[in-house]
Amino acid sequence: MPFNKSEYIWFNGEFVAWDDAKVHVLSHALHYGSSIFEGIRAYDTPKGPAVFRLKEHVRRLFESCKVYRMEIPFTPEEIEKAIVDTVAKNGLKGCYIRPLVFRGYEQLGVSPFGCPVEVIVAAWDWGKYLVGEADEAKGVRAGVSSWRRMAPDTFPAAVKAGGHYTNSQLLNMEAHEHGYDEAIALDVYGYVAEGSGENIFMVRDGELLTPQAGSILGGITRNAVLKIASELGYTTHEVQIAREHLYIADELFFCGTAAEITPIGSVDGLPVGNGLVGPITEAIRERFFDIATGKAPDVYGWLTHAS
Ligand code: PMP
User: Fold this and answer.
1) Nearest alpha carbon, ligand 1 atom 7
2) Which of 4, 193, 226, 236 is most buried when burial is the number of CB atoms within 10 A of its CB?
3) Given ligand 1 and candidates 40, 172, 199, 284, which is best to mutate, with the most ligand atoms within 8 Å of its CB?
4) How many angstroms separate the Cα of 199 from the Cα of each of 56, 285, 291, 295, 304?
5) In whole angstroms, what separates CA 185 from the centre of its chain?
């Protein structure tokens, strides 16, 4: 999807023009995937733009950096402020926000130490991901991938690192080559893990099931879905899910910052349930958007207003 350019990008503590936010081609991150990032959305609410779950995203950014021994030269509060300021400075309403921490230019070799740790925050106007508005009633076509998510002792799946997304790209490209909208990856043991950039939930007999931690990114939207599901009175389970359970699920949906709550209409060509968006998916999606867009009271304290 081409960019809807904004005016400014926050770069190491200062705003620079979008087109001037550049790095050297010998930056470490470019060669070895040594970057950590977040994907955050702000929603247009009656009280102005509101960043969804800002603190949780910044916390995951710092935790991801800790695992890869990257010292962010700013405090969490400074990064939170940079995010809010980037939305406000660009006059954005609903938007997608991309904080990125990366190893920059100084020396080149596998060892990342010695390269400066740099930080940017960009934000731009962005619509739906995965699904066009017209397709929302049907859900997306998903296919189980021949590529697996990483084994727990290979890459730290709970960390949102740039390098991990080479795996996501393989998943995503294969799905499109096979005529699907998105991939469902299994873990190294053969159990369902997640999409290339989303977590996954299934509904069976009125209960929600989602894969447990180990080979998945612990999504902030996944966490919101678990909370909303409990609030609405549904039992939730974080468990191992076998591939065939996808085929006999009553309902299935992806969730993530970009994907929000995206119903899955078919898996490997088999319709999910009766092929229409299910009532539990719909109820969760509605409650999610009501809170995110400020239509319902922010009972969980998930919104940070940007202006
Ligand atoms: N899994 C992967 C691999 C992802 O890239 C994402 C998107 N960040 C998610 C799950 C969902 O995470 P979140 O809800 O925090 O956006």
Assistant:
1) 197
2) 193
3) 199
4) 16, 14, 20, 25, 24
5) 15
Q: By the 8 A CB rule, do 184 and 195 touch? A: yes
Asked if pLDDT for residue 35 goes beyond 90, the answer is yes
d(CA 275, CA 153): 38
- So what's the pLDDT on residue 136? 67
Q: Which residues, other chains included, contact 116 with Cβ-Cβ below 8 Å and sequence gap of 6+?
A: 103, 104, 105, 106
Mean pLDDT over 107-122 rounds to 97
d(CA 200, CA 194) in angstroms, rounded, equals 6
CA 3 to centroid of ligand 1, rounded, Å: 20
C-alpha dist (Å) from residue 183 to 129, 171, 178, 230, 267: 14, 6, 10, 27, 9
Whole-angstrom Cα Rg for the chain: 19
User: Does the active-site annotation cover 160?
Assistant: yes
Over 80: is that where the pLDDT of 293 sits?
yes
Find the mean pLDDT for residues 267-272.
Answer: 97
Give the position of tokens 């919104």.
303
Which residue lies with its CA nearest to atom 10 of ligand 1?
Answer: 198
Q: Which residues line ligand 1 (CB under 6 A)?
A: 39, 168, 194, 197-199, 217, 219-222, 256-257
Confidence of residue 139 (pLDDT cuts 50, 70, 90): very high
Whole-prediction pTM:
0.97
- Ligand 1 mutation pick, 55, 198, 262, max ligand atoms within 8 A of CB: 198
Cα separation of 212 and 64, whole Å? 19
Task: Give the pLDDT mean for 43-58.
Answer: 97
For 119, other C-beta atoms within 10 Å of its C-beta total 23
Q: Average pLDDT, stretch 18-23? A: 98
